[in-house]
């Protein structure tokens, strides 16, 4: 990386107005997240045209994909967080070591995870909550997901490492190209070649391989990136402990999401394939909305990391509040639009199944009621993690679909039947929001104290 390029970027990260800086960094990350969410919805849409059981298979396999993402983001964000701090502190050589350790660890772990999945395919699918009618569709889909696991993991890791270097535009190219390819290949493989859900899985696998190749090229051919070099792969207990400490909130967030999805599918099973399909569709649509907020927050993370490394705590606080305000406004607009068209949104996916439409519309409207709370919750999660408060970040990460969700999914369906199941997630959202307020208030007080201490002669 050229010294002048690095110095110029550091100057922007540490001195450019946070409103302008975050907005500029957030544009490519929002695009990346939206494309990812759109191709996930495309999978759901095209597969849903096969049958209700096939539609349910997407929800089943999604929990496996979430688990792969959990490990990927744990390594990628844990690594990227330290890379941004080291760059903010001017230690490029140490940053190179973290990049190599993160990437090669992901490649090894992804290969092992993919092999395990292929060797235990049916058992995994049934454990994830598949019914006997959904299982064949889910196995056809999941087979290609596990084959692509190493490429998927490394893609997510490189995406995060580039973002934390302040190079979100490079990450965007890889993610969006793969996502667009996935949407183009879905109808070709599913219907043109008659591969059914297996075609959707193959399309996803090939798109992940494409993203991997592009991101690998971006990481190694661009002059302003830290290249991935095996000679810098010098793993140590210290490096892994730091990566896991700052990355563990991602594992908590994505891991409990996977567990929560499994529990939701298994609880929905007695209500039929239509219930699983409806919840799968709602999940994909709300993920699409949430991707806008997550993408905006990802523009905040490198700013937070650089300025924490430079001990500019007032700038970190200002950036956090800016992101909360903007994300909440965005969510209020999306809430109004989605509430008006909720029934039509569900009908796009399964227009011939009234059970899916009825259950899906109810679940979506219930979820939309808590949508305006997501901005503070998501930004609190990203802020606490990037600022280095690993334990509190892990608690916040695990709250929405773990600490708050799991007890509710065990209790509410027993008390209120199907309606109780459909309102479990929004009820958990309210509790997670309250918990995040309490924890983040403490972090902000500590930063204020630290800023006062550092300013004393």
Kindly report how far apart the N and C termini lie: 36 Å
Number of helices: 18
Portion in helices = over 70%
Cα Rg: 21 Å
**Low-confidence spans: pLDDT under 50, at least 5 residues?**
none
Structural class: mainly alpha
- Main β-sheet description: none
Order of helices and strands: HHHHHHHHHHHHHHHHHH
Overall strand count: 0
What characteristic shape results from the CA principal axes? globular
- Beta-sheet strand percentage? under 5%
What quaternary form is this? single chain
Q: Overall pLDDT, averaged?
A: 84
Helix and strand layout, with pairings?
Blueprint: H1 3-15, H2 18-48, H3 52-88, H4 92-119, H5 121-127, H6 135-147, H7 149-164, H8 168-192, H9 197-221, H10 237-268, H11 273-309, H12 313-340, H13 342-349, H14 354-369, H15 374-386, H16 390-403, H17 405-422, H18 424-455
